[in-house]
């Protein structure tokens, strides 16, 4: 599925795409179908902060036109190759990148970090960890320089064959894996959104440990809703409150009828 113009404007509360400065699509329900498409980013010339964590994104090419981008959160997506960094090298203002928990990170954390820093030496923070001068110097030795975009053998229906191959493994697993509901995962997302972490004693009441797939999916949706509620104003929250009240009344009425 693609992130539409209407969805971006609604989320950013902007009248036009060139007025969008911040975009938060963390754990977005639009991206439950792989591969997630972010082609709309080509039309966001003034975007400064983008949060795309916990989705199914595999292609970073649309971001190369976002020349004002300073913070980019891509944790836990489906970015297979570090060659995708080629598109970020053209972003002069990029200072914060969160790329952890993608397949491209590989089994060697040091090699991964050194490669990212060699290609993006202007970063001040990588994966929520400050970048040091010593690391930047070491990256020139231990990192791999990326000089070309990732190879994509063919393009069909808007995405590449190589992306299709890379996502094959992911699609074999339950979709709920894209939106993990562990306490650790939830609090990482909370941190990205500048929200307080969920206390352990309250977490179990939000997300009871269930093994049934439908229950996991329900919990994933609930997790996304709770995170996105931060974007609502008072009027929006009142609408949700009224809707929830009506739904609860309907469930209570149904339970009485069944008894």
Automatic annotation (TrEMBL):
Keywords carried by this UniProt record: Leucine-rich repeat, Repeat
Domain of life from the UniProt record: Eukaryota
Pfam families for the chain: LRR_4 (PF12799)
GO cellular component, one term: photoreceptor cell cilium
Organism listed in the record: Chaetorhynchus papuensis
Biological function: Plays a role in cilia formation and/or maintenance. Plays a role in the regulation of cell morphology and cytoskeletal organization. Involved in DNA damage repair.
Assembly, per entry: Found in a complex with CFAP410, NEK1 and SPATA7. Interacts with NEK1.
Designated name of the protein: Cilia- and flagella-associated protein 410
Repeat in keyword set: yes
Signal peptide: none
Start and end residues of each U2A'/phosphoprotein 32 family A C-terminal domain: 109-127
Entry-linked InterPro entries: Leu-rich_rpt, Leu-rich_rpt_4, LRR_dom_sf, U2A'_phosphoprotein32A_C
Any one GO biological process: cytoskeleton organization
Stored PANTHER family: CILIA- AND FLAGELLA-ASSOCIATED PROTEIN 410-RELATED (PTHR18849:SF0), LEUCINE RICH REPEAT PROTEIN (PTHR18849)
